[in-house]
Specification:
Elements: H1 2-24, E1 39-40, E2 47-48, E3 61-66, E4 74-80, H2 81-105, E5 112-119, E6 122-130, E7 136-140, H3 147-157, H4 172-176, E8 184-187, H5 193-212, H6 223-230, E9 253-259, E10 265-273, E11 278-285, H7 295-303, E12 304-305, E13 308-309, E14 315-318, H8 333-342, H9 350-353
Helix pairs in contact: 2-5, 5-6
Bound molecules: zinc ion.
Amino acid sequence: MAGSNKDKKRRLFRLFSENLEWVKEHPSISFKPDFSNGYICPLCFDVFFEKDIETSNENYLTLEDIPPKSLGGKPLALTCKSCNSKSGHELDSHLLNRLLEIDSHQFSPNSKTDTTFELNGNRVNGIVEVDNKGKVKLDLQTSRSNPKEADRFLKDLIPPRTIYNPLFYPDKLFDEGIKTPSFNLKFKRVSQERRAEIALLRIAYLLAYATFGNGFYINGGLYKVREQILNPEKDILPKVYWIKYDFPREMEGINIITIPKELRCFLVIFNLETKSQKRQFAIVLPGPSEPGIKVYDFIENELCTGDGTTFINGMTEHIPSNDYLKNKDYAFASNWFWQEYTKPDYKPNLQKSKK
Ligand SMILES: [Zn+2]
């Protein structure tokens, strides 16, 4: 297993490293001090070499699952251990927990969560589990609850009843029998929403990097995006950087919103999969020219309605999937598409946008 992981790392290292050499050939791009056959961690921009795929070094290159493996992702790129493990516990765990919490709140099949049951002020800890057919099982765990409260809870839940002999009291059997008690469920919440949101931003950024390679981050607008990803405790970007809209499946991957002009951006659409549900997310990343990072202000000020963002009368261009990374001619593909779709005489591809 360890061997095959090393092979994967080496393959990805060479792929991105060669791509980096092509990007470096651009006359206006230079690195000081210069280096060759290196790998730049797309998050912290530290430079690594092929020896750094060995785990023995202090900070080394790790396989980066995009999206996280627990949400259906695959290793598509490398990030340094420091960037990878930091975001693992500071971001990805919150995203996973957030989605699992939503699954449980919706009683989705295959969900399971820690809960507190409450009845007449008495609380019992337990678990709510929904099986694959949607059948709900409530598991009261009195052993890990306050024994007195658990006692009273159970008494209230199942009222003590007299057993009547049905031969003598045929009509009483059901009278005294099963009552449907009602009680409250209080779901425990361990995830932090903001962290979960920054995890989404990180997935979108890395997905675009894994698609286009090193040419993608030659884009001043992404500076603050990386800063936000690396510093989740700070409020660097506005709160909302996604578009709430059910995009057709053909748009999954990378898109460019072309109209309205104030909303020009890369739109990265991907799915996250828990055991219960598959959900689509559409995350905005700034483009290399206007409006750049200001696109987030536009979303926050103009598009937000209550719980999120609605996409109205926009026009997008889908970027077809291709081996952009493996072809020298495509070293700046993301910039090329951007220029193509944002030039003054740009005409939206109406044929394609018509749904
Ligand atoms: Zn790094």
